[in-house]
């Protein structure tokens, strides 16, 4: 899909082995030195870019708790390309987020695409591993410091927060949530029946948060 994205931008460039990661890296580098390319060509196709990033990130983070047993050259190449693809696409999104004049349009396009699903995956990975960047890819990172890419991915969560204000969407109040985490449709999370100040994506999250801290908080609210 990254190759499709690259071709849709009508950019001609020799790619090493025709790899999607190469296409994304070239595009990201070109945009750094050409703001017009970013605004005129990339921004109108942001929803497709986010969709590709969500797919790549999903594949990379779906088994972050189970690192691959194989250390063969083929596995290493695959991980390296996946790492480069996620880094390049996250870099492109970060460049778009830095366009202050176009931020509203960026938020709109992210909302239309798989941006919410991507934000959920980013938060799940960070909560489970301590970083938004899948350790599996960080271990094989060839593009540099993966912490920079992690920060770029986490910036997407800020997009959801801005989008949530406009659509009145809520996060699951259980900060350890590994489920839905974020609402994609208004009022789908169930509020606490006692205080009505917090909401949860599932009963298990509600029970966990109650035991951890909300029991005390809820009682304090009722005494006010």
Description of the structure:
The chain has 224 residues and is mostly helical. It folds into two domains: 2-167, no CATH class; 168-224, no CATH class. Helices cover 62% and strands 2% of the residues. The chain is built from ten helices and two strands. The protein has helices spanning 2-8, 20-32, 35-42, 46-61, 73-97, 103-112, 115-129, 135-138, 146-167, 203-222; strands at residues 190-191, 199-200. A two-stranded antiparallel sheet has the order 1-2. Strand 1 and strand 2 (199-200) form a beta hairpin. Helix 2 (20-32) packs parallel to helix 5, helix 6 crosses helix 9 and helix 7 (115-129) packs across helix 9 (146-167). The protein starts with a helix and ends with a helix. The model is unreliable at 11-18 and 64-77 (pLDDT under 50).
Structure, briefly:
InterPro entries: Znf_MYND. By secondary structure, this protein is an all-alpha fold. The chain has helices spanning 2-8, 20-32, 35-42, 46-61, 73-97, 103-112, 115-129, 135-138, 146-167, 203-222, and strands at 190-191, 199-200.
Low-confidence stretches: 11-18, 64-77
What is the alpha-carbon Rg in Å?
A: 19 Å
Number of domains: 2
State the total count of DSSP E strands. Answer: 2
Give the strand content.
Answer: under 5%
H/E series: HHHHHHHHHEEH
Keywords: Metal-binding, Zinc, Zinc-finger
InterPro entries: Znf_MYND (IPR002893)
Protein name: MYND-type domain-containing protein
GO molecular function: zinc ion binding
């Amino acid at each position: 899909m990254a190759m499709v994205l690259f071709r849709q931008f009508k950019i001609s460039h020799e790619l090493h082995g025709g790899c999607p990661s190469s296409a994304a890296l070239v595009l990201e580098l070109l945009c750094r030195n050409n703001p017009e390319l970013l605004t005129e060509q990339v921004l109108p196709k942001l929803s497709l870019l986010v969709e590709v990033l969500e797919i790549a990130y999903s594949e990379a983070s779906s088994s972050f708790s189970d690192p691959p047993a194989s250390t063969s050259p083929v596995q290493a190449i695959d991980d390296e390309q996946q790492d480069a693809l996620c880094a390049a696409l996250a870099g492109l999104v970060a460049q778009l987020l830095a366009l202050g004049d176009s931020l509203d349009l960026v938020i709109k396009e992210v909302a239309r695409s798989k941006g919410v699903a991507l934000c959920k995956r980013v938060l799940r990975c960070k909560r489970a591993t301590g970083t938004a960047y899948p350790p599996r890819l960080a271990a094989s990172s060839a593009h540099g410091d993966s912490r920079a890419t992690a920060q770029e991915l986490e910036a997407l969560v800020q997009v959801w927060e801005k989008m949530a204000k406009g659509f009145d969407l809520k996060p699951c109040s259980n900060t350890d949530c590994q489920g839905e985490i974020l609402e994609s449709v208004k009022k789908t999370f169930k509020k606490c029946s006692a205080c009505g100040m917090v909401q949860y994506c599932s009963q298990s999250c509600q029970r966990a948060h109650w035991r951890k801290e909300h029991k005390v908080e809820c009682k304090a609210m009722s005494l006010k």
